[in-house]
Design brief:
By secondary structure, this protein is mainly α. It is 83% helix and 0% strand. The protein is elongated and about 55 Å long.
Length: 162
């Protein structure tokens, strides 16, 4: 089965068609997706700004991270589920959209960036938690901001193209 055939099959599943054709379901799912994105990415941006020493300077990074991560992950789960539902409702159109493809690339890059932080810098956080943020962490924070702003911009632009 080709990719296009698989995408076509997905968007013709009964529940995907119901979402697409519903005058209520699609807008509710899309609105939930945008709210969850704002929530999750807003929390990530708060952490990034702390890592860049632009906010919460008097608070240790570990405290900020510990307080934000549960909320960030909850928002991310809602964002992921609603994003998959929206994709399923118009899989072929979405896949063919350049902004969708760029958004997916940026999401993967944001994930790799976050994973790199978690594997390389997070275990050593006690060494720099109260002091200056290492240069590598600041680079990760800047990249995170760039990737997430790109995801949001592509997502909004994609919505106007579909």
């Amino acid at each position: 089965m080709s990719l296009l055939a698989a995408l076509n099959w997905i968007q013709h599943l009964g529940w995907a068609v119901a979402i697409k054709e519903s005058s209520l379901a699609f807008p509710l799912i899309e609105g939930s997706h945008i709210l969850a994105l704002s929530f999750s990415v807003g929390m990530v941006m708060m952490l990034d700004l702390r890592l860049l020493l632009l906010s919460f300077r008097s608070q240790p990074v570990s405290l900020i991270m510990r307080q934000l991560m549960p909320w960030t992950m909850a928002g991310f789960v809602v964002m992921l589920v609603t994003g998959l539902l929206l994709f399923a409702a118009q899989a072929v159109k979405a896949y063919g959209n350049t902004f969708f493809r760029i958004k997916m690339i940026l999401l993967v890059l944001a994930g790799i960036n976050a994973l790199y932080y978690q594997l390389w810098y997070y275990p050593k956080m006690a060494e720099w938690d109260f002091g200056g943020t290492p240069r590598g962490v600041r680079i990760i924070a800047v990249l995170s901001l760039i990737f997430w702003i790109g995801v949001i911009a592509c997502g909004r632009t994609m919505a106007y193209e579909l």
